[in-house]
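Q: I have 251 residues here and want to know how they pack in 3D. Can you give me a structure?
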Amino acid sequence: MSILTVNGLSFSYPSLDVIKDVSFEVMPGEVVSILGMNGAGKSTLLKCINRILKMSSGSVAVSGCDISSLSSRELAQKMSFVIQGSRFSSTSVFDAILLGRKPYIEWDATKKDFEIVKDSICRLGLEDYALRNVTEMSGGESQKVALARTIVQQTDVMLLDEPTSALDLKNQLEVMNIVREEVRRRNVAAVVTMHDLNLALRFSDKFLMVKDRRIYSMGGIETITAGAIKDVYGVDAEIAEVGGHKVVVPL
C-alpha cells in the first residue's frame, strides 16, 4: 500500500496554471526525487502536498488519510516539510530542533522528546552547535538544523525542498545518506526536489520528471536517459557509469 498518493493535483494562480493534473504514488522505504527546470512547479507541488498551498483540484492521501480530513496537528504528525533556505527565529540550535516535537507535546517536552533531539543532533554532527544561536549559523549549517528538526518530527512522509542547496560536497553526501538511512530505518518515505541530477541518481529509488507543469515521466533509474534529459532540460548529455554509480555528463 502506498504511503503517499497524489491524484489529479492541479494548482493555479488567477492568471497562471502552475501544476496540471499530477498523479503519482510513493511506497514505504522509497526516496523519490522530483526533477525539472526552474519554474517547472516542483516547489509548488510540495507545498500543495503539505497543504501550505490549497490545490485547485485533486486529492492527496498520506498513510491512507485524505489530508483535507486532518487537523493541522494530525497532518504534522504524518508529514513534515523542509523549505528551501530555511530561516529560524532567535533561539538555540537545540530548541530549534525541539520544535519538531511540537505535534506530540501536550504540556511540556518529555525525557523521550529530549532524547530524540539529542540523537538527531549527533546524527547530523551538530553537537558543537547545540547551544549556539541558530541565527549565527551559516546557510549550510541552518539547513542541517532544518533536517534535524524534520527527523525528530518522525513523520510517515518527509518533503524536502532542495535540502542540499546550501551545502558543500561532503555535507551533501552526508545529508542525503542520513535521509536515505531514516527512510530505510523507519520504513517511511521522502520526496525531494533536486537540481543536482547526479546526487539524485545516487540516492533516489524513483524519479518524477516535470516538464511544462505536468509529469513527463515517473519511474526508476531506467527513466533517466539522454533523451529524457534533452526533452526536460534542453541539454545534450551522456549517461555513464563511474564507481558503480550512474552519472549524467553534459556534452
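Q: Anything worth noting?
A: Residues 4-250 form a domain with the Rossmann fold fold (CATH 3.40.50.300). The chain has one domain: 4-250.
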